[in-house]
């Protein structure tokens, strides 16, 4: 069937329209051309039990109730909305299902638009869903939720400058046994949780199943709260933020911004499953409030930037830090009772610990040690080393507005650079900055 050349068709029937209704059947619809419109009062099945193909292109508009692409087990549905001003507008309060219990694929491309309430990609246990948004100007608006594998297997790919907007929550791997993978890649590509639609939005990766989120090569993901492996011990979530797209082999800064909190290996109420956050070269993860890591969750920081207002680790060993910048926008305490980084902090070679606005206190409640050997520690305030604290500077850079040692002998300086930016340096018997008999080691 074709509707082209500016033709308009409207059905007020309450019976669902279908392409590929019965097992073994095939149905095809081409809706093409500016001014061409199809309006359906009821739901639209693309591959109900058979095989269905829908194409909306060249400025045509489809309006319908709930959309099913690959509805029943064994069905195969494919819907493509492509080209500037091409639209599939699903009635208010209605969802789109991609791979309900069959196999479904939705492609939105080259400036086209799809609008619906909730998208369920891979809905039933036998559902296999694929959704792709690609190309500059392409927009997929979900006024409530997006499920990337509600109970089946599914993928969501946002690339080449497309944007997917979510009003409330994105869940990747929602139910136990489900597997969902979302990839946002390419300069200008966005997964946006819209605070205008909902003031507090969430991005859940591995809710009770297996979820993966990859943010690559200039892409941007925004959310209010992030949770990785949030609920049960069987859940697993992995988020990787990196400048390099391993498929496209191109590099640009990729970013995940959480305006409030980020939980790895659980949620606010307690521990969940195995959550992993990977921040690699060219990746940026920001947390406007606290980054909480529940064991056995882990953060792998090998490059890029991980920035949070504060840190809360069940076990400081759950930070695997081999490179990149760790920025903490509150004060940092290095002591046995610290839930931030514990009582021993070692800054790796080529890595940076940045505490821009507040100070660093070492040894407040017992032994505290800061090791700098080839990396950098910077703060815009004071490094305060109490009687149980020690600073070992053997390479790299230690920079502060000021330093204050209870015992100036607690600075073990054998190499690297000590830079004091905000005050004069006093070297005398009463100084709390440096030893009165200070000597600078060779090198």
General description of the model:
With 443 residues, this protein is mainly β. The chain folds into 2 domains: 2-333; 334-443, no CATH class. The protein has a 40-stranded parallel beta sheet that branches. Strands 37-40-43-45 form a 4-stranded parallel beta sheet, with no helix packed on it. Strands 31-32 form a two-stranded antiparallel sheet. β31 and β32 (270-271) form a beta hairpin. The termini are far apart.
CA-to-CA gap between the ends? Answer: 80 Å
Total helices: the number is 0
Number of individual domains? 2
Provide mean pLDDT, rounded: 93
Low-confidence stretches: 436-443
Helix content: under 10%
Instruction: Report the sheet with the most strands, covering strand number, pairing sense and barrel closure.
Output: 40 strands, parallel
Shape estimate: elongated
From the helix content, strand content and strand pairing, which structural class follows? mainly beta
Number of strands: 46
Q: Proportion of β residues?
A: over 45%
Seen as an oligomer or otherwise, the chain set is: single chain
Radius of gyration (Å): 27 Å
């Amino acid at each position: 069937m074709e509707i082209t050349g500016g033709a308009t068709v409207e059905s007020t029937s309450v019976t669902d329209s279908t392409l590929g209704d019965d097992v073994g059947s095939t149905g095809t619809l081409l809706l093409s051309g500016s001014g061409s419109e199809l309006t359906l009062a009821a739901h639209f099945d693309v591959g109900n039990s058979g095989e269905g193909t829908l194409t909306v292109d060249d400025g045509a508009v489809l309006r319908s109730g709930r959309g099913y692409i690959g509805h029943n087990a064994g069905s195969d549905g494919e819907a493509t909305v492509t080209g500037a001003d091409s639209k599939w507008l699903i009635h208010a309060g209605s969802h789109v299902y991609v791979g309900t219990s069959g196999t479904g694929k939705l492609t939105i491309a080259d400036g086209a638009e799809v609008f619906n309430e909730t998208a369920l990609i891979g809905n039933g246990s036998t559902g296999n869903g694929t959704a792709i948004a690609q190309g500059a100007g392409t927009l997929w608006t979900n006024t409530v939720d997006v499920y990337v594998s509600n109970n089946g297997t599914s993928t969501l790919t946002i690339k080449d400058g497309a944007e997917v907007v979510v009003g409330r929550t994105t869940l990747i791997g929602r139910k136990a046994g489900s597997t969902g993978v979302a990839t946002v890649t390419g300069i200008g590509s966005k997964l946006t949780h819209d605070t205008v639609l909902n003031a507090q939005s969430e991005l859940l990766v591995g809710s009770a199943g297996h979820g993966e989120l990859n943010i690559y090569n200039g892409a941007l993901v925004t959310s209010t709260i992030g949770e990785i492996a949030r609920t049960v011990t069987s859940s697993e979530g992995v988020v990787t933020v990196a400048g390099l797209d391993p498929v496209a082999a191109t590099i640009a800064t990729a970013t995940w911004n959480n305006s409030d909190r980020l939980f790895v290996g659980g949620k606010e109420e307690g521990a969940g499953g195995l959550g992993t956050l990977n921040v690699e070269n060219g990746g940026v993860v920001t947390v406007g409030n606290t980054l909480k890591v529940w064991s056995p969750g882990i953060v792998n920081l090998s490059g890029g930037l991980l920035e949070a207002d504060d840190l809360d680790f069940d076990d400081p060993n759950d930070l695997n830090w081999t490179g990149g910048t760790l920025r903490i926008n509150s004060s940092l305490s290095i002591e046995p009772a610290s839930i931030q980084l514990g009582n021993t902090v070692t800054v790796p070679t080529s890595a940076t610990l940045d505490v821009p606005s507040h100070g660093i206190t070492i040894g407040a409640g017992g032994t505290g040690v800061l090791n700098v050997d080839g990396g950098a520690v910077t703060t815009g305030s004071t490094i305060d080393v109490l009687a149980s604290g020690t600073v070992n500077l053997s390479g790299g850079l230690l920079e502060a507005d000021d330093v204050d040692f209870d015992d100036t002998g607690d600075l073990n300086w054998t190499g690297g650079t000590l830079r004091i930016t905000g005050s004069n340096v006093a070297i005398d018997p009463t100084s709390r900055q440096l030893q009165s008999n200070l000597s600078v080691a060779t090198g």
